[in-house]
Design brief:
The protein has a domain of about 25 residues. It has two helices and no strands. The protein is elongated.
């Protein structure tokens, strides 16, 4: 495989950078809100699972 010179490498990087389609501000805000809501829901879910498992473990350890 032929080696690429640093100048050619940076030209290729700039060419690829021009192909990038950046999201609009509205898409970014919508996605950020969705991620925040999903994090909240999943954290509550895992809190519930952890609480249930903790209660089960306390019950099992109280039997010993």
């Amino acid at each position: 495989m032929a080696k690429t010179s640093p100048a050619e490498f940076f030209n290729q990087v700039r060419a690829e950078g021009r192909k990038v389609v950046w999201p609009s501000r509205d898409e970014t805000v919508r996605t950020s809100i969705f991620v925040g809501i999903l994090v909240l829901v999943l954290s509550l879910f895992f809190l519930g699972i952890d609480t249930v498992f903790g209660a089960v473990m306390r019950f099992l350890l109280s039997l010993a």
